[in-house]
Structure formats: C-alpha cells, structure tokens
TrEMBL record:
This is Transcriptional regulator, LysR family. Gene3D superfamilies: Periplasmic binding protein-like II (3.40.190.10). The lineage of its organism: Bacteria, Pseudomonadati, Pseudomonadota, Gammaproteobacteria, Cellvibrionales.
Length: 52
C-alpha cells in the first residue's frame, strides 16, 4: 500500500507528536521528585486509533 501525499504528511506529523510526548515523559521522569507516578494523556476516540 502507498500513502498519498496527505497521508505522508499526517504520518510525519503524528511521528513528531509521539516523539515530543516521549520527550515530555522522559523529562518528567528525570525530575521524579516533583512529578512522581504515572502520567496519563487523554485522547478523543476519533484520534486514539491513530496513536498506537
């Protein structure tokens, strides 16, 4: 299967968002004292299937 140009743009942006979320989680983990425990991120149902 091939992606359309729009599909390639969506995948690229989604990848960038996931990298930023991972960086944010790592930053919070590094500062464990003020931010302890799990971090949860809510996503609306129409977007959630594309995040995993």
């Amino acid at each position: 299967m091939l992606l359309t140009p729009l599909g390639k743009d969506v995948v690229s942006r989604a990848h960038d968002i996931l990298v930023e979320v991972d960086d944010l989680a790592a930053m919070c983990a590094a500062a464990a004292e003020p931010f302890s425990g799990k971090m949860r991120l809510g996503v609306i149902p129409t977007i959630a299937p594309f995040c995993f």
